[in-house]
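Intended use. Records like the one below are meant for learning the mapping from a protein sequence to its folded structure. Do not use them to infer anything beyond what is encoded.
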Amino acid sequence: MSRIRYGWLTHQGMVRSENQDALGVSPDHDLALDHPKGVLFVVADGMGGHRAGRRASELAVSTVISSYAGAESTDIPAILPSAVREANRLVYHEGSSTPAYHGMGTTCTALVLQGTSAWVAHVGDSKAFLISSEGISQITTDHSRVWELYTRGVISREEARIHPERNLLTRALGQRPETDVDLVGPLTIRPGWKFLLCTDGLTNHVEEKELREAVMRTTPAEGAAELIALANTRGGADNISVQIVEILAD
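Structure written out for the chain above:
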C-alpha cells in the first residue's frame, strides 16, 4: 500500500489585514491510504468582507470534514460532493440569517486519496494541480467569467491569469441554497505524483512552470513555504494557501 506525506501553509499576504483562507486535513494522524474513506484535504478562500469571508471559509472546511467523516457510506464519489453541498447549505443559511455575514461565500476544493485512487470535488476558483516528472496539469475548472473567456479562446491562459476581472466568480459556496459540485476522478495515482491545492493568491503571482519546478524539487512542507514566499515577493496581493501531497513508494 502506498503512503503519502504532505505539507501545508497559509499566509495573509502583503496587502490584506486578515487571512480569509482556510485549510484542513482528515485524518491528520494517519497517512496510510487504506482507510475506507482515505485521506481528505480541503482548501477554501472566503469572500464577503473581513468577518464574513473568514467565517465562510472556516465553516466550509469544518463542514466538509465533519460531513465526509460522518457519512455512513464509504462511496467516495457520492459522499465527497455531498459533503461540499452540505457546506454550501450551511454557508448560505448563515449568510442569509446573520446580518454580519450577509452575502458571504467561499470557494472550496477537496481532494480524497484512497487506495490507488484520487477524487477532487470543487466549487469556485481555488485550484487543484497534478504534478509529476511528466509535467503539470490543472485538474479543476475555474468557475469564473475569465475562465469562460479562456475556454472559448477569447483570451490566452496567461491573459486569464492576470485579467482584471479574474476574481468575478460564476459559482461559489453560499451564493444559492443549492449548488452544483464538480467531481473529478477516480484518477489512478502513482508513486512520485504530487497534488497541489491552492487559493488564487498563489496562482495570481506564480506561473504553472514555476509551481511544478518548486514542488518537484522540494519536500511538500518546503515547497509550500517556498511558493508562499515567492508569491509574497511579487506583491502578495491576496491571502495565499498551499497544500502539497506527495504519493510515496510502498
